[in-house]
Amino acid sequence: MGRTEYLITIIIFYLFFISFAVAIVIYVRQYRIKKKEHTLMLYKQQEEHQKELLSTQIEIQHQTMQHIGREIHDNIGQKLTLASLYTQQLAYENKAPQINDSIENISVIINHALVELRKLSKSLTDNSVARYSISKLLQTECDSVKDIRSCKVTFSSNVKKIDLSYETKSVLLRILQEFLQNSIKHSECKHIIVTLNKESDVLLFDLKDDGKGFDTQAKSNGIGLSNMKKRAEIIGSSFYLHSDHNGTKLTLHISL
């Protein structure tokens, strides 16, 4: 074999080797890309499945509360009303005055129970989330806390009229309730500011208190934060939480 043939053989060998190495690199790269795409697809499927489960859970809870409310009104309420009528009849017909006071006390207790049951039934069957706007719902919730607590709660919004689903309104209301409860109970705050603003195609929901803050990574805060995060995921909202010694701020961005 001459020198020329030898050089050609070496060159062909190296070209083959380089082509083989390049093919392996391309194969590994394509494999990693496909694996990454497959993993991402599985993650998205899992995320969508989780959203559907959480959405179904909210719907089931709503239907269950409606059913319990109707049962309280139609069944237990009617029986207590009948019991109240019987005690009134006993007091009227009773010929032993010494036990009249006991009968009247029983009647008072039953009537108080009826009042509380009617309030509970109304709250369970109340479909205010569907009937009212999100601004009205949030304002009402802030006012109810402001009326019974020493903490000042301020709500503001530039949203005049917006068409949100029952699910979205319900989630925002529950997150507000969780935030208010945690701030009032644990943060020793004096002021809570709640804002709902629409900017272009995004709804901005901000909640802020001036309390002592907390460690967002602490296990003791896991359930409350987890619940809020899961609710935000249901409506496809981002979830930003920051807390330090100056207070706690939660921000949600909901695409419209």
Structural description of this entry:
By secondary structure, the chain is α+β, with helices and mostly antiparallel strands. Helices cover about 65% and strands about 15% of the residues. The protein contains 6 helices and 5 strands. The chain has helices at about 5-95, 100-125, 130, 135-150, 165-185, 220-235; strands spanning about 150-155, 190-200, 200-210, 240-245, 245-255. The chain has a 5-stranded mixed beta sheet with strand order 1-2-3-5-4, with helices on one face. A hairpin with a 2-residue loop joins strand 4 and strand 5 (about 245-255). Helix 4 runs parallel beside helix 5 and helix 5 packs antiparallel against helix 6 (about 220-235). It is elongated and about 135 Å long. The chain starts with a helix and ends with a strand. The mean pLDDT is about 80.
The helicity comes to 55-70%
β-sheet strand percentage: 15-25%
Query: Oligomeric form of this entry?
Result: single chain
What best-fitting shape do the alpha-carbon axes yield?
elongated
Helix-strand makeup class: alpha+beta
Trace the largest sheet across and list its strands: 1-2-3-5-4
| Termini Cα gap | 76 Å
**Main β sheet profile:** 5 strands, mixed
Secondary structure tally, helices: 6
Radius of gyration: 32 Å
Order of helices and strands: HHHHEHEEHEE
Runs in which pLDDT lies below 50 for 5 or more consecutive residues are none
> What's the overall average pLDDT, rounded?
79
Number of strands: 5
